[in-house]
Every structure is written in structure tokens, then in C-alpha cells.
Amino acid sequence: MATLPQPSPEPRVPLSRERVLQAAVRLADDGGIDALSMRRLGQELGVEAMSLYNHVANKDDLHQGIIELVLAEIESPRDGGGWKEELRRTAISSYQAFTRHRWACGLMMRGPSVSSVRIEWMEAVLRTLRTGGFSANLTHHAYHALESHITGFTLWIVSMPFETHEELVELAQDFLPTISAERHPFFVEHAEQHLLPPDPEEKSEFEFGLDLILDGLERLRDEA
User: Which of 17, 76, 99, 223 is the right S-S partner for 124, CB 3.0 to 4.6 Å?
Assistant: First the structure.
């Protein structure tokens, strides 16, 4: 009786730095940066943890690499566009990338050095301000106002004990009844505003603050 041919095993995808970093991003997205370890990463890729060191030097190198993958998702300001529109676009893109990967902003801020990808973004933002008519001194302050809003607002959002509006409502159902509306009427009013369904026609809280900054910078530039 003839022996049926056995199916050939699936060819193994060779390990590479890009593949290691992409798997690390997935693990961090799923479980947070503390869930990312060389052992867990090796399991995810089906290899021994020691083989990862052929592609990343150490955990610091791994962290730097995954930060750069997230930073590469951010749309930089384009040369030749209006400074206000380009800064608004890159700020929103930054916020969206950092909230897709909730671990990334905090990890970037803790890093001992600035990655080359981040330096290119900074250069593009600074160039947009200078070619948009801002002085060197006003560019210095404008850059920090913009970056502080992006990173500060992001870190505030990702530190919340909820990720969705539905989770917020569930928490509020337990929390709000403990607050006296007679003693703290404006606090309760404010909390209730958070519980309203999001209005698709209204700016997000991030965009509201961003536009205040950009409008203020435009006024300062025009007055200079």
C-alpha cells in the first residue's frame, strides 16, 4: 500500500529585530509595559529568550525600539503648509498614537535619551514655528506649551482607572452618590458633564485645549 505524502511543515519565519519589536508592542498593548519581559516575549515568538539578544542588546534597547515604532506612527508637520493647521494635525496624531499605546508616553518620558525619531519630529515642529513667523524666543515657549499639552493630557488620560465612557459611567454610579450635591454643587455638576454621551459635533477635550494654545500663540506672534 502506497504511503501518502506527509504535508511539509510550515516554513519558520526568521527572527528579526522588526519582528521582535512588533511582538513586544503587541504584548505591551495587551498587558501594559510591566507585562513585557524577555521570557514572555520569547514565548510569544516561539523562541528561547536568549535568542532575542541577537536582535536587541538588552531591555533598555527593547524599550527604545518599541517607543520608536510608536513615534513612527505620528504624522509630522509638513513643510509648506499653514503653521497652525500643521501643528494641530501633528498634535492630534501624537495624542492618538499615545492613547492607542497607553504605555508609550510614560515610557518615553522616563527614557535617558531622546530617540532619533523624536528628534526629527521636534525639528519639524520647531521649523514649522520659525517659518511660520515666530521668533526664536517665542518658538522656544510655543514648543514647550504644545509638547506639555500633548504629553500632560495624554499622561492624565492613560492614568485614569477606565478606558471607555461606559466604564466611567459604571464607576460614577458608585462614586457620585457619596458626594453631597448641597455641599459641592459645582463638583457634582462637573461630574455629571463627564457622564453625558459624547457629542460628535463638539471638540474633544484635547482639541479644545489645543486650540486655545494655538489661538493664543497666533495672538502673541501677531503682537510681537
Answer: 76
Cβ-based burial of 150 (10 A; exposed 0-12, middle 13-18, buried ≥19) = buried
Calculated CA dihedral for residues 157, 161, 163, 164, nearest 10 degrees: -110
pLDDT cut 90: percent of the chain above it: 76
Domains and CATH numbers, the chain: 17-56 (1.10.10.60), 76-223 (1.10.357.10)
CB 210 within 8 A of CB 149: yes
Instruction: Outline where DSSP puts E strands in 41-197.
Output: none
Mean pLDDT for all residues in the chain: 92
CA-to-CA distance for 23 and 39, rounded, in angstroms? Answer: 12
Question: What is the pLDDT, as a whole number, of residue 5?
Answer: 59
HEC string for 55-92:
CCCCHHHHHHHHHHHHHCCCCCCCCCCCHHHHHHHHHH
In angstroms, rounded to a whole number, what is the distance separating the alpha carbons of residues 138 and 220?
8
Tell me how far apart the alpha carbons of residues 175 and 76 are, in angstroms, rounded to a whole number: 41
* Nearest-angstrom CA–CA distance, 141 and 23: 38
Q: How confident is the model over 76-82, as a mean pLDDT? A: 95
**Is the distance from CB of 92 to CB of 46 less than 8 angstroms?**
no
Structural Rg of the chain based on CA atoms: 23
* Rounded-to-integer distance, Cα 13 and Cα 46, Å: 11
Task: Decide if pLDDT at 83 tops 70.
Answer: yes
Residue 130, pLDDT above cutoff 80: yes
